[in-house]
Amino acid sequence: MDWLKREAARAQRHSHDGVLLLLELDPWVRLQQQYGDDCIQALDDRLSQLARQQLRGGDWVLAQPRGMWAVYLPSTDPLGALDAADRLRGRVATLDYRWQGQSLPLSASLGLAHWQDWKREPQQGAEQLLQQARQALAMARGAGCNCVRAYAPAPSGRSRYSGTRPA
C-alpha cells in the first residue's frame, strides 16, 4: 500500500493517469494442494519474472500472498491498460510450466482500475483504487476466470446491479 500511496502522490503532483492491475492465478489453490509449496514457490518466481518481462521500465509488479500480483502502470490510459492486461493474461495461459515432468495448465484473472479523481487525498485515492481493482478482479472471477475486467463506476442515479427485476 505504501508504494501505491507514493504512486498516487506522484501521479497527482504531475497530473498523469495510472492503472492498478490485480492478477490472480486461477488454479493456485488446486496446485498448492496437489503439488505443495515447492511447486507454488517455483511458479510464483516464474510468473513474477514473466510479468516483469511484459512491463515497461517504470511499471512495477509486487507479488502478493496466495497466487496474486499487484501491477502498477503509471502514465497509462484505460485502453492501454486493457491491452497490457490481456497480453499478460495470454502469456500466463500459454506458459509451458512443468512440475516433476508434468505440464500444468495455467490461467489468470485480472481486474484493473484507473485513476479517476485527482482531487482526493493521495491516501484515499490509493485505497479507493485498490478497492476498485479488487471489485474488477471479483467480476473477472465471476465471469468464469481467465479474463480481464475493468472497474467502471455506475452512472449516477442508476443501480449498479444488472439482471432481472423482482416481480
Query: What is the approximate shape?
Result: globular
CATH architecture descriptor: 2-Layer Sandwich
CATH superfamily: Reverse transcriptase/Diguanylate cyclase domain
Mean pLDDT: 82
Level of helix content? Answer: 40-55%
Q: Please compute the radius of gyration using only Cα atoms.
A: 17 Å
The largest sheet, given as strand count, sense and whether it forms a barrel, is:
5 strands, mixed
Number of strands: 7
Strand order of the largest sheet: 2-3-1-6-7
Poorly predicted parts: 159-167
**Distance linking N and C termini:** 44 Å
Number of separate helices: 5
CATH class: Alpha Beta
Helices and strands, in order, run as: HEHHEEHEEEHE
How many independent structural domains? 1
Helix and strand topology:
Blueprint: H1 2-14, E1 18-25, H2 28-35, H3 37-54, E2 60-64, E3 68-74, H4 78-93, E4 97-99, E5 102-104, E6 108-114, H5 122-142, E7 148-150
Key words describing this protein structure:
167 residues; Alpha-Beta Plaits; disordered C terminus; diguanylate cyclase activity; GGDEF_dom; Diguanylate cyclase
Description:
The chain has 167 residues and is of the alpha+beta class. The chain has a single domain, classed as Reverse transcriptase/Diguanylate cyclase domain (Alpha-Beta Plaits, 2-Layer Sandwich), CATH 3.30.70. 46% of the residues lie in helices and 22% in strands. It has helices spanning 2-14, 28-35, 37-54, 78-93, 122-142, and strands spanning 18-25, 60-64, 68-74, 97-99, 102-104, 108-114, 148-150. The strands form 2 sheets. Strands 2-3-1-6-7 form a 5-stranded mixed β-sheet, sandwiched between helices. It has a two-stranded antiparallel sheet with strand order 4-5. A hairpin with a 3-residue loop joins strand 2 and strand 3 (68-74). Helix 2 (28-35) packs antiparallel against helix 3 (37-54) and helix 3 (37-54) crosses helix 4. The model is unreliable at 159-167 (pLDDT under 50).
